[in-house]
């Protein structure tokens, strides 16, 4: 096999027998004194005690044996057969529902219940027909704000560039008609739609200002408790910035109480949630065994051991039941990113980091002997992971992907990442305070968006197209903007804690310094900037010149959405596992949804699809 001849894989196999285990001794180790030397020269090392920085990261709250003990009753042919029957029922409902608003409501419910990927074909055909009916004219005179806004949002969400002129009938003198404020459901739908605008759409910016003001004013006086919950949920974070799988369990309770609930849809949602939970449990057990087998969490005591939360991110990026391999492998990549970030941000001395970057840049296995023991472990483990993924892709697709991965490493992935990590380390050790633009330019790489995107593509797309990998590696606007939003969202939740650890100023602090404003003002400006960059990113989506299919675009958008869901509260939802992160882990991976007796009745032969969701 071609892969067996790879020097990268051959050397990593040899190294597996030669590694010297490293055990840290609190925060004091022996510092290698690095002399100035050519790249081919051995390092002169003297023994000198060093006091290292500490991140004071709390240990992982999850026990390995807890995950290995997870079991589910929702496996086996019986449950899968019932789920298949229910899926056919929902397909039949798709065929029987003909009213345009009912069709839109059905698609929206299915997506928010977390199983939209099962009906991607039906959804696309339905929306494509609506789009081809000329949506800018289809609602003329209808004056149903909810229906119009829902159509606009769903069409844009699925890649159809519907014009914002669809809302002209709801305006006077380029302002939305004030009396529309009495229709809270319609205002909420317009608010959600405003987050799907693109740069330069003044009408959609007006829609955002108009609806935000009304919803904030009326939130406490809404009589319908479920509508009030939806409004509160949207003001906290709009649907465009949310990951459906993380919200599915919450939305099921709302949908179950709705007078428009379709029993087959709800039943399938619950069955699918429980079945996918069982798949996720197996995936989580697998990656937990891998992580325990590496022993890196024990050997490198200074790192954040966040394997479970890394898996949560993987599920957020793609919950598709066919992407189990992707979730396992991208979890490993994310945990490695965390490990290496801690090396550069906290533990490594500047001399060590300069040396490590030099060794990785050469990607010379022999040069690994120059590194401190803990860095040898890092380099070897990274080497093994890259080779493992290349081997698996060869096995699955019969495509020898190592050259592409190696090129990606050389151009913009690990080496490029480490170079940008090193820039931040130099800023720290020199006391340099970057400008906001300097920080963001470097930070869009150190947030690791480009790494996650290229690996996500390689791990989910079959066949892998060189045109697409070359495009992603070129850091196109959609990847750059996605990474910038990721950076800003991360800093929104982590910068306060990182400053306490003595880290360099983050985007918020850099903006405060540049603009001479308070932290509160800077945070507001960061939210506005994220909205602006979302508009620019959506413009890229609709440009039509990307060599990526829609599933690849969705993965990029979901990465950004996960950053919002993780850091939106202003706290570090990744580094600190208590709170919302812990709640999500329990909900998604340990607590199945009870199936009520009425939902376990024999299959209804004629699905109930007489739904009348006209705006109430």
What can you tell me about this protein's structure?
The protein has 616 residues and is an all-alpha fold. Among the domains are: 166 residues, Glycosyltransferase (Alpha/alpha barrel); 160 residues, Farnesyl Diphosphate Synthase, CATH 1.10.600. The strands form two sheets. Strands 1-2 form a two-stranded antiparallel ribbon. Strands 3-4 form a two-stranded antiparallel sheet. Strand 3 and strand 4 form a beta hairpin. Helix 20 packs across helix 23 and helix 23 runs antiparallel to helix 25. The N terminus and C terminus are likely disordered.
Summarize the structure in short.
By secondary structure, the protein is mainly α. The protein contains 27 helices and four strands.
Q: How many DSSP helices?
A: 27
**Strand ordering within the main sheet:** 1-2
Q: Decide which structural class fits the backbone.
A: mainly alpha
Head-to-tail CA distance between termini: 64 Å
CATH topology of the domain at 95-135 and 142-266: Glycosyltransferase
Q: So what's the CATH class of the domain at 95-135 and 142-266?
A: Mainly Alpha
Mean pLDDT comes to 86
Helix content: 55-70%
- What CATH architecture of the domain at 95-135 and 142-266 would you give? Alpha/alpha barrel
Rg over CA atoms: 26 Å
The outline comes out as globular
InterPro entries: Isoprenoid_synthase_dom_sf, Terpene_cyclase-like_1_C, Terpene_cyclase_plant_C1, Terpene_synth_N, Terpene_synth_N_sf, Terpene_synthase-like, Terpene_synthase_metal-bd, Terpenoid_cyclase/PrenylTrfase
Protein name: Monoterpene synthase
Cofactor: Mg(2+)
Pfam families: Terpene_synth, Terpene_synth_C
């Amino acid at each position: 096999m071609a892969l067996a001849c790879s020097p990268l894989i051959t050397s990593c196999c040899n190294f597996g027998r030669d590694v010297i285990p490293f055990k840290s001794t609190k925060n004091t180790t022996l510092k290698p004194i690095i002399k100035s030397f050519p790249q081919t020269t051995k390092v002169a090392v003297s023994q000198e005690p060093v006091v290292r920085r500490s991140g004071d990261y709390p240990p992982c709250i999850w026990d390995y044996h807890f995950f290995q003990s997870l079991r589910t009753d929702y496996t086996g042919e019986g449950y899968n057969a019932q789920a298949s029957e229910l899926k056919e029922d929902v397909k039949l409902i798709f065929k029987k529902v003909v009213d345009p608003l009912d069709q839109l409501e059905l698609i929206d419910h299915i997506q928010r219940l977390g199983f939209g990927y099962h009906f991607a074909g039906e959804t696309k055909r339905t929306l494509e027909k609506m789009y081809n009916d000329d949506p800018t004219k289809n609602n003329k005179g209808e004056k149903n704000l909810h229906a119009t806004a829902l159509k606009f949002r769903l069409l844009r969400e699925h890649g159809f560039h519907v014009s914002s002129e669809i809302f002209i009938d709801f305006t006077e003198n380029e302002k939305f008609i004030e009396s529309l404020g009495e229709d809270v459901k319609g205002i909420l739908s317009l608010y959600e739609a405003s987050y799907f605008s693109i740069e330069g759409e003044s009408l959609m910016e007006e829609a955002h200002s108009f609806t935000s003001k009304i919803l904030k004013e009326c939130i406490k006086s809404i009589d319908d408790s479920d509508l009030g919950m939806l409004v509160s949920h949207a003001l906290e974070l709009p649907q465009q910035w949310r990951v459906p799988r993380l919200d599915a369990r919450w939305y099921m309770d709302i949908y179950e109480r709705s007078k428009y609930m379709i029993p087959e849809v709800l039943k399938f949602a619950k069955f699918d949630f429980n079945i996918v939970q069982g798949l996720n449990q197996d995936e989580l057990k697998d990656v937990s065994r891998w992580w325990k087998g590496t022993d890196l969490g024990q050997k490198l005591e200074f790192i954040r051991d966040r394997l479970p939360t890394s898996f949560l991110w993987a599920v957020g990026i793609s919950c598709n039941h066919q992407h189990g391999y992707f979730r396992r492998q991208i979890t490993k990549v994310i945990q490695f990113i965390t490990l290496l970030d801690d090396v550069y941000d906290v533990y490594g001395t500047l001399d060590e980091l300069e040396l490590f970057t030099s060794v990785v840049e050469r990607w010379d296995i022999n040069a690994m002997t120059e590194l401190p023991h803990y860095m040898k472990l890092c380099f070897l483990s990274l080497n093994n992971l890259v080779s493992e993924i290349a081997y698996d892709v060869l096995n699955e697709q019969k495509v020898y992907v190592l050259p592409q991965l190696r090129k990606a490493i050389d151009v913009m992935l690990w080496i490029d990442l480490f170079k940008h990590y090193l820039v931040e380390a130099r800023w720290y050790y020199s006391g340099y305070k970057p400008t906001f633009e300097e920080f963001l330019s470097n930070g869009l790489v150190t947030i690791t968006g480009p790494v996650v995107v290229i690996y996500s593509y390689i791990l989910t797309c079959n066949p892998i197209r060189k045109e697409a990998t070359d495009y992603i590696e070129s850091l196109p606007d959609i990847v750059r903007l996605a990474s910038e939003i990721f950076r800003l969202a991360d800093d929104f939740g982590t910068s306060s804690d990182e400053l306490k650890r003595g880290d360099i100023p983050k985007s918020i602090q850099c903006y405060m310094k540049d603009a001479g404003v308070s932290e509160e003002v800077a945070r507001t400006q960061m939210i506005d900037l994220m909205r602006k960059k979302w508009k620019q990113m959506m413009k890229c989506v609709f440009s039509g010149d990307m060599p990526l299919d829609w599933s690849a675009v969705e993965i990029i958008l979901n990465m950004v959405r996960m950053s919002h869901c993780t850091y939106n509260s202003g706290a570090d939802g990744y580094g600190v596992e208590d709170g919302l992160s812990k709640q999500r882990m329990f909900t998604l991976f340990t607590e199945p949804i009870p199936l009520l007796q009425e939902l376990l009745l024999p299959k209804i032969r004629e699905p109930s699809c007489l739904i009348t969701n006209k705006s109430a």
